[in-house]
Amino acid sequence: MRVHYLQHVSFEGPAGVADWAAERGHTMVGTQLYAGEVLPHQADFDWLVVMGGPMGVYGEGEHPWLAAEKAFLRDTIAAQKPVVGVCLGAQLIAEVLGARVFRNLYKEIGWFPIDLTEEGRRSPLFDGLPQQLDVFHWHGDTFDLPPGAVHLVRSKGCAHQAFLHQGRVLGLQFHIESTPDSVRQIVKAGADELVPAKYIQSAERILAATTEDYVRINQVLFRILDRLPLHE
């Protein structure tokens, strides 16, 4: 299978998603939008993964490539290809599906628990997963649920943490693709955001996560990606 990813900044790459693709024998290539690279043709990939970034979906003035990316996402969803969005990626998907994206009451940065909703517990994507799981977060925006989407996950700091649309378009506000290296990169790049607040942890606390923490969240990522349908 051919997996394509969209990357918005140098320090938020595919991380664990790339590990999953390699283990499963899938090919994976990407477009670095921040570097001016051109989006692929729809015929060139089977799955699309949209990574995170510090910009907002409303930042087209500063990042004009966002407009082309949104049109590309609409075309990909219309083509009924599986799409996975992480953080900003989930927000972009929500917007192109007609939902509002806006500032959350709290920034959520660090290791905090998420909880499955009733729909999440019933979803085949999350079957067998724990009701509550500590995961890595780094976001200030959130979204309303897109029309017709299934609400899968919530947290105390952010009501809408994950949704599924049409069984193959998945938005994840949190970062279960994180690896020790990817977290070190984002902590370094976003150090100015690490100020004392209800749902913001210190760099020391974030970087104190153990190997087992990363193994646990990556195992969840792999199980979810394995259960998404292949493009027909």
List the topology elements.
Blueprint: E1 2-7, H1 16-24, E2 27-32, E3 47-50, H2 65-78, E4 83-86, H3 88-96, E5 101-116, H4 118-122, E6 132-143, E7 150-154, E8 162-165, E9 169-172, H5 180-189, H6 203-207, H7 211-227
Parallel strand pairs: 1-2, 1-3, 3-4, 4-9
Antiparallel strand pairs: 5-6, 5-7, 7-8, 8-9
Helix pairs in contact: 2-3
Summarize the structure.
With 232 residues, this protein is α/β, with parallel strands linked by helices. Helices cover 30% and strands 26% of the residues.
Describe the structure.
With 232 residues, the chain is of the alpha/beta class. It has one domain (2-227): 3-Layer(aba) Sandwich (Rossmann fold). Helices cover 30% and strands 26% of the residues. The chain is built from seven helices and nine strands; from the N terminus they run E-H-E-E-H-E-H-E-H-E-E-E-E-H-H-H. It has helices at 16-24, 65-78, 88-96, 118-122, 180-189, 203-207, 211-227; strands spanning 2-7, 27-32, 47-50, 83-86, 101-116, 132-143, 150-154, 162-165, 169-172. A nine-stranded mixed beta sheet has the order 2-1-3-4-9-8-7-5-6, sandwiched between helices. Helix 2 (65-78) crosses helix 3 (88-96). It is globular. 42% of the residues are buried.
